[in-house]
Write a structure and sequence with these properties.
- About 40% of the residues lie in helices and about 25% in strands.
- The protein is an alpha/beta fold.
- The protein has 2 domains: about 90 residues, ATPase, nucleotide binding domain (Nucleotidyltransferase, domain 5); about 150 residues, 2-Layer Sandwich (Nucleotidyltransferase, domain 5), CATH 3.30.420.40.
- Strand 10, helix 6 and strand 11 form a beta-alpha-beta unit.
- Helix 1 crosses helix 2.
- Homodimer.
- This is Type III pantothenate kinase.
Length: about 260
């Protein structure tokens, strides 16, 4: 079995593949101060809880945007799974060419998303990832990572409101019954969700206009993306497992 490890700023998402089939997924909090043994024990316990034996994991691939966890987590994988993980970084075959002044600045998660969209849905395409940041990445018809837009993420924006405004409470991120909200929490929910919908629609529209080359698919991913995609025609496909599938595809390229 293949273990895919997607390390984000907030969560680490793990997926177990049997061939091309995604067998199970689970998450753990990204804590930079964990030791290799702590990471190893948590991963093993989560696998066992999901009926996956540790010895069934034969390969591991990692995509990370948090450099500080890599030493401990890589050591944990080697110690507990007895295999050296593939780290998605410069030099790894992804099927995507990055047209950027500094390709090393493009996060591994975004390269993985671009590779997945291109392989699974074709190009040109815009892939939107609703994570800690909301990213809009443009992949050309020939698999070139052409341009991107980066905006504050949905949860990041919410946290900014309730942490920096003394009288604004913490609230559940969901779409209110109406944009014509009356109580404070519904007002904040309306501003956050409808604001993200409007942001999505305008950025996609402008990217398509300036790119100006044929029909462009728009594929969204990220857990909170589900809230947005239900209320906009700007998104053609919502694929919550896009990043994990991209990691599987990149793993297969390394084995060819």
């Amino acid at each position: 079995m293949l273990l895919t490890v997607d390390i984000g700023n907030t969560n680490i998402t793990l997926g177990v593949f049997e061939g091309k089939k995604l067998h199970v997924t689970f998450r753990m909090t990204t804590i930079q101060t964990r030791t290799s043994d702590e990471y190893g024990m948590v991963m093993c316990e989560l696998l066992e809880h999901n009926d996956v034996k540790v010895e069934e994991i034969t390969d591991v691939i990692v995509a990370s945007v948090v450099p500080n966890v890599m030493h401990s987590l890589t050591s944990a994988i080697i110690k507990y799974f007895h295999t050296k993980p593939i780290i998605i970084e410069a030099g790894v075959k992804t099927g995507i060419r990055v047209a950027s002044k500094n390709p090393r600045q493009v996060g591994a998660d975004r390269i993985v998303d671009a590779a997945a969209v291109y392989e699974l849905y074709g190009g040109p395409a815009i892939v939107i990832d609703y994570g800690t940041a909301t990213t809009f990445d443009l992949v050309d018809a020939d698999g070139t990572f052409t341009a991107c837009v980066i905006a504050p993420g949905i949860r990041t924006s919410a946290q900014a409101m309730w942490s920096m405004a003394a009288k604004l409470p913490e609230f559940e991120i969901k779409k209110p019954k109406s944009i014509l909200a009356q109580d404070t929490i519904a007002c904040m929910q309306a501003g956050l969700v409808y604001g993200q919908i409007g942001q999505t629609e305008y950025i996609v529209k402008q990217m398509k206009k300036e790119f100006g080359k044929g029909d462009i698919k728009v594929v969204a991913t990220g857990g909170l993306g589900r809230i947005i995609e239900k209320d906009t025609d700007a998104i053609d496909i919502y694929d919550p497992m896009l990043t994990l599938q991209g990691m599987r595809l990149i793993f297969e390229k390394q084995k060819k």
